[in-house]
Amino acid sequence: MRHDQQAGDPTLILVFGILGLVMCQLFGIAAWVMGNNYIRRCRELGIEPEGSAVAGRVCGIISGVMLILGLLATCVYFGVVFLFIGAAAAGA
Residue 2, Cα to own-chain centre: how many angstroms? Predict the structure, then answer.
């Protein structure tokens, strides 16, 4: 086992980050959390985090933000739809 492998698996973090961007944002949340844990453990061990783990964490952050924005847009959309339905029903 390499010394930096004690901190975690940077390749898995990168794969989850990419999957979060292109497939399902929940993978991105997992990459974000795993990347934060990996970087914290690297600091504790006094080693430099691998670039692939940092890239996976960034992809996870981006996909997490996209997930939040998508959920907010969906809530606003349905709020407006229900507002118009309620207004149309009240006016009828």
Answer: 27
Domain boundaries, the chain: 3-65
Element (H, E) at 24: none
Q: Amino acid identity, residue 69?
A: L
Report the chain's terminal Cα–Cα distance, integer Å: 72
Tell whether pTM > 0.85: no
In one-letter notation, the amino acid at residue 23 is M
Below-70 pLDDT ranges, the chain: 1-7, 92
The SS3 call for residue 39 is helix
Which amino acid is residue 58, in one-letter code?
Answer: V
The tokens 């975690």 sit on which residue? 8
DSSP state of 50: P
Q: For position 59, what pLDDT does the model report? A: 96
Residue with tokens 């974000």: 32
